[in-house]
Design brief:
The protein starts with a helix and ends with a helix. It has one domain. The radius of gyration is 21 Å and the shape is globular. By secondary structure, the chain is mostly helical. It is 78% helix and 0% strand. The chain contains 14 helices and no strands.
Length: 293
């Protein structure tokens, strides 16, 4: 299958999956509003839908057809899947909303399976900040090794694995930062500032190498980039600068919001309210629905 035909095929199925996810989410949100459950604000919905739209742009839009021709387009895909879409999706409170959007019987079965197989312990381990950081950093570095990078370009299967790994590790990375499901973290909130700072290091090293390297790191773009009016080296420098700028700005915004929360005089009151809500949820929530979460 040619790259163009593969993009058309992926566009059909990818769009279908994203539309289905949006419909399930909206069904859950409407059910929450109808039964006067804990509120999910309109901006949460807008954030989630915007996150899905960015995934669509990265995977099945015309941008996806350019990722084999320009490193800048390829880098834009990575940034959308790993840096921009995940925090927007998690800000949409997806766990609670999806639980209300799915059929109740399905949620019960899923919750029982989640508990009986020990997946809840696996999930707690996966969402440990150290694991989230290592997963994102190792994925970023591994897929930019020249031999692995070319493998992702030449194989549709591996390209799909590459995109899925960026999205999955992006969601894991942002989970301790956004905390879409209310929990009392064992880690002090101030440690997330260090978490974000350390996360910029592998990105800075990689982007700095692409910007200042005097040779083309990925020769596969030597011929194709010239069709867009730039040399392969200029395309490489643009890709590195895009990554450097985007990661720095996004992480700085997240760190600023967290720092403002830490310095807020109402922070202790908010923590007390959170603890109260967790205790109330543990008492009044249906145990089977809690298992599903």
């Amino acid at each position: 299958m040619s790259h163009a035909n593969h993009i058309a095929f992926a566009s059909f199925w990818g769009s279908g999956v994203l539309i289905f996810a949006a419909l399930v989410y909206l069904r859950g949100w409407l059910r929450i509003r109808r039964f006067n459950l804990e509120s999910v604000a309109g901006w949460h919905v807008a954030s989630f839908v915007l996150g899905l739209m960015l995934i669509w742009v990265a995977t099945v839009s015309p941008l996806a057809a350019l990722d084999h021709a320009m490193l800048t387009a390829h880098m834009a895909q990575h940034l959308l899947l790993m840096t921009l879409a995940p925090p927007l999706i998690l800000l949409g409170v997806p766990v609670k909303t999806f639980v209300d959007g799915l059929p109740h019987r399905f949620v019960q079965v899923l919750g029982q399976l989640f508990q009986s197989t020990g997946l809840h312990r696996v999930w707690r381990a996966l969402t440990h900040p150290a694991i989230c950081w290592l997963g994102a950093a190792s994925t970023l570095v591994a897929w930019h090794i020249p031999a692995v990078f070319v493998l992702g370009l030449k194989s549709h299967t591996w390209h799909g694995v590459e995109q899925a790994s960026f999205l999955a590790t992006g969601l894991l990375f942002w989970w301790p930062v956004v905390r879409p499901w209310p929990t009392v973290s064992k880690w002090p909130e101030s440690s997330i500032l260090l978490y974000l700072f350390l996360a910029t290091l592998p990105c800075d090293i990689l982007s700095g190498f692409l910007v200042f390297c005097d040779r083309v790191v990925y020769p596969v773009f030597l011929s194709s980039s010239q069709a867009f009016g730039s040399s392969a080296l200029e395309d490489q420098q643009c890709a590195g600068a895009l990554m450097w700028t985007c990661v720095t700005v996004v992480y700085l915004i997240a760190a600023t919001i967290i720092a403002a929360r830490l310095l807020s005089p109402h922070r202790s009151e908010e923590r007390s309210i959170l603890q109260f809500e967790l205790e109330r949820s543990a008492v009044h929530t249906d145990p089977q629905r809690m298992e599903a979460v």
